[in-house]
């Protein structure tokens, strides 16, 4: 399984990928593209999205397996533990994969694929994109699932130092096995407007999922107060979610229909056009490991006002962002401060600085270093691995061991029923395509369903 350490063959796995849009989806796509350019082979595995099922090719020849499983809740597939073993094994052998890279602790497919890959002796890397608490019921259960997955993971990556601390505390993983590799932004896609906007009317842009975790309830209290204090301020809100109703009710209650524009869900290709129509970007998240949206806004030359949560203070230099506590009064004061320093902001200069600060090619090179560490790590037999699961708790450790023993037996039976040599290996090739096409490009080369 070691393979050539200078050229990795990577399977990226997550429930979250295009055509769904978000930070994790963008991270996997841009990282994969840069890894391909570095000479590594990258294949993505995710679940089906509507009629997007089977094998597709995207820009740069990126091959994506849309496994014909439908999402169960919040774009996640239904947990089956062992139902994904045959298809994961087939893809690993067909593509001659040497390393599996799972993304996002929320992803059911990620956890199951990493479990099966370790059973088959593959080296695995996990990237955590979110922060979690320790007290509520949901976080307690998620942390135990993460502890199970990371007990046998080869190396782990977090997108910020705050995220690393959070992951180490939640999983018990040794800190020396957790690397910090930040997100980045495609500065070629997110450019400032050609002509600088007039400040006679100040436009504050919000582009976010309208959910509790993203601080939609804070916006309900902040927006009316800012509109009361500044007659020349207008808001543009892009995004959709269960909290959209509250924002619309707020707009009706305070008579702000002409000052608060609700765009609904915004396709990723249109995010730049929304951003460059404003002066200030407002992020009201209650928890955030990194926040790619802030990078996109800064790359477009917008001054950012954000809550001081999670890894957000690590993202931008102090002169590019005004931080506030996740409190309506403090956020209003932060917006007031941002409006006063707005004339000093040069969008083009900010964009040029972002080009130097964040680059996906740099992220890819740093990720390859983690892959090198993972591939060089020593192999462990089943008994050695089970001892790591036993350390997860008096009851949970025994349960985790039982899960892994059953997975090992099923894999062994699967090999007897269909030996590895009976699985067809696909030839390697690079798909020639127009590099100007967006991430949603795919071809008719291979649209057949998975067997």
From TrEMBL:
<dbReference type="Pfam" id="PF00534">
    <property type="entry name" value="Glycos_transf_1"/>
</dbReference>
<keyword id="KW-0328">Glycosyltransferase</keyword>
<keyword id="KW-0808">Transferase</keyword>
<dbReference type="GO" id="GO:0000506">
    <property type="term" value="C:glycosylphosphatidylinositol-N-acetylglucosaminyltransferase (GPI-GnT) complex"/>
</dbReference>
<feature type="domain" description="Glycosyl transferase family 1">
    <location>
        <begin position="197"/>
        <end position="340"/>
    </location>
</feature>
<keyword id="KW-0337">GPI-anchor biosynthesis</keyword>
<dbReference type="InterPro" id="IPR039507">
    <property type="entry name" value="PIG-A/GPI3"/>
</dbReference>
<dbReference type="GO" id="GO:0006506">
    <property type="term" value="P:GPI anchor biosynthetic process"/>
</dbReference>
<dbReference type="Pfam" id="PF08288">
    <property type="entry name" value="PIGA"/>
</dbReference>
<dbReference type="InterPro" id="IPR013234">
    <property type="entry name" value="PIGA_GPI_anchor_biosynthesis"/>
</dbReference>
<dbReference type="GO" id="GO:0017176">
    <property type="term" value="F:phosphatidylinositol N-acetylglucosaminyltransferase activity"/>
</dbReference>
<protein>
    <recommendedName>
        <fullName>phosphatidylinositol N-acetylglucosaminyltransferase</fullName>
        <ecNumber>2.4.1.198</ecNumber>
    </recommendedName>
</protein>
<feature type="domain" description="PIGA GPI anchor biosynthesis">
    <location>
        <begin position="47"/>
        <end position="136"/>
    </location>
</feature>
<comment type="pathway">
    <text>Glycolipid biosynthesis; glycosylphosphatidylinositol-anchor biosynthesis.</text>
</comment>
<dbReference type="InterPro" id="IPR001296">
    <property type="entry name" value="Glyco_trans_1"/>
</dbReference>
């Amino acid at each position: 399984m070691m393979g050539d350490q200078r050229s990795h063959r990577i399977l990226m796995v997550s429930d979250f990928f295009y055509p769904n849009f978000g930070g994790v989806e963008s991270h996997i796509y841009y990282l994969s593209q840069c890894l391909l350019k570095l000479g590594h082979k990258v294949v993505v595995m995710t679940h089906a999205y509507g009629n997007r099922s089977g094998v597709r090719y995207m820009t740069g020849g990126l091959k994506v397996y849309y496994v014909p499983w439908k999402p169960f809740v919040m774009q996640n597939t239904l947990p089956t533990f062992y139902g994904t073993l045959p298809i994961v094994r087939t893809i690993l052998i067909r593509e001659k994969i040497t390393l599996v890279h799972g993304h996002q602790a929320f992803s059911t497919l990620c956890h199951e694929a990493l479990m099966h890959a370790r059973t088959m002796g593959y080296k695995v890397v996990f990237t955590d994109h979110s922060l979690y608490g320790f007290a509520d019921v949901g976080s307690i259960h998620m942390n135990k699932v993460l502890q199970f997955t990371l007990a046998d993971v080869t190396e782990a990556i977090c997108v910020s130092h705050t995220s690393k601390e959070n992951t180490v505390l939640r999983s018990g993983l040794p800190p020396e096995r957790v690397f910090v590799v930040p997100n980045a932004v495609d500065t070629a896609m997110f450019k400032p407007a050609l002509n600088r906007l007039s400040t006679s009317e100040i436009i504050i842009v919000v582009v976010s999922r309208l959910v509790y975790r993203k601080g939609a309830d804070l916006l309900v209290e902040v927006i009316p107060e800012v509109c009361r204090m500044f007659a020349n301020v207008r808001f543009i809100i892009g995004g959709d979610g269960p909290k959209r109703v509250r924002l619309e009710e707020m707009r009706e209650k305070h008579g702000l229909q002409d000052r608060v524009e609700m765009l609904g869900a915004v396709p990723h290709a249109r995010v730049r056009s929304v951003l460059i129509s404003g002066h200030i970007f407002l992020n009201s998240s209650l928890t955030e490991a990194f926040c790619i949206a802030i990078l996109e806004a800064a790359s477009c030359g917008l001054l950012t006002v954000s809550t001081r949560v999670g890894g957000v203070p690590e993202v931008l230099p102090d002169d590019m962002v005004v931080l506030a506590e996740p409190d309506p009064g403090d956020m209003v004061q932060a917006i007031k401060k941002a409006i006063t320093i707005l004339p000093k902001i040069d969008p083009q200069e900010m964009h040029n600085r972002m080009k130097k600060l964040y680059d996906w090619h740099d992220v890819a090179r740093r990720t390859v270093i983690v892959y090198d560490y993972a591939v060089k790590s020593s192999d462990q037999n089943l008994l050695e691995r089970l001892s790591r699961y036993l350390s997860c708790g008096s009851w949970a450790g025994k349960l985790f061991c039982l899960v892994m023993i059953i997975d090992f037996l099923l894999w062994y039976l699967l090999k007897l029923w269909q030996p590895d040599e009976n699985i067809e290996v696909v030839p390697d090739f690079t798909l020639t395509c127009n590099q100007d096409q967006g991430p949603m490009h795919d071809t008719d080369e291979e649209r057949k369903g998975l067997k």
